[in-house]
Amino acid sequence: MKILIVDDTNTDRLLLKLYITKLGYRVVEASNGQEAIDQFIEHSHDLDLVLMDVKMPVINGFDAVKAMRNIQEQQKQEWIPVIFLSASAEEGDVEDGILAGGDDYLIKPIGQKVLAAKMLAMKRIADMRRRLVESNSVLERLAATDYLTGVANRRSFEMTLGKEMQVAKEQGLSMACAIFDLDRFKVVNDTYGHDAGDAVLVEIMKRMKASVRDIDSIGRLGGEEFGILLPNISESEAKETFTRFLRVVSDTPVVYEDTDIAVTTSIGVAVYCGDDEDKKSLLKRADECLYEAKDTGRNKVVLHSGVTL
């Protein structure tokens, strides 16, 4: 557990540090409210508890914690417990501390046994919070992932598309958005069975994931239809890349239960250059190019307004 100790009195701060390090916890120090805010910003990713003195120069403890809570809210960070430390036992001060964003209030001087008990309680909270964060991360990942292929689901893909379009617009970059599906996939399911069809989808996605850059995104839009985003790429580079993707799919049959299943794909590509087009319109352009690719023979790429590769 990592603890930020904030106290303008050196002896009090050093004594707290001594107690807490003896208990096996890591310590970060600050001597006033502004330093506390700075340390909080630097260490918030792995901080578990703040011990905050109330009366300090520059910025007092109450105002420092209010600033920390504002930072947490703005950056959507997880809640970090705060215990105020003060020589004042006035009810109003205790109330002000809780209203400022504190979770507990201890009266100085603080005995070692009381401090050890509070640290144990806060460790339990920190452990529970960490497990909750991990569980939420797993759930968020599952909610954003297609269960069969492991790529993003449609909702997640479209959210990424919106973000990438915004980046392209702000930075004056171009990006390519493609929709592709596997040609005559119904024949695969009817001939070899749906388990074979699933195996084909999994294998093709495995190949595609190995072929894209780290900054690229793949999503399953439904059935055998997928989307690919290639940020920061020119039209000529997009042509070359998607032509290579055709070969990635078609050059090697998918092997299922000792049977070779030949697969090809058709790809429709729309290039976005940072104008006022929305993602619905961009996807529609890519979809129209996909239909043209299928209508004119399949196993090909149609880019933009119908340039066939």
Structural class: alpha/beta
Largest sheet: 6 strands, mixed
Number of helices: 10
Low-pLDDT segments, ≥5 res: 305-309
**Which sequence of strands runs across the widest sheet?**
7-8-6-11-12-13
- Gyration radius, to the nearest Å? 29 Å
Helices and strands, in N-to-C order? EHEHEHEHEHHEHHEEHEEEHEE
The strand count comes to 13
Question: What proportion of the residues form beta strands (DSSP E)?
Answer: 15-25%
Query: Given the C-alpha coordinates, what overall shape results?
Result: elongated
What share of the residues lie within helices? Answer: 40-55%
Distance between the termini: 58 Å
Overall pLDDT confidence: 91
Structure, described:
By secondary structure, the protein is of the alpha/beta class. Helices cover 51% and strands 20% of the residues. The strands form three sheets. Strands 7-8-6-11-12-13 form a six-stranded mixed beta sheet, sandwiched between helices. It has a five-stranded parallel beta sheet with strand order 2-1-3-4-5, sandwiched between helices. Strands 9-10 form a two-stranded antiparallel sheet. Helix 7 crosses helix 8 (194-211).
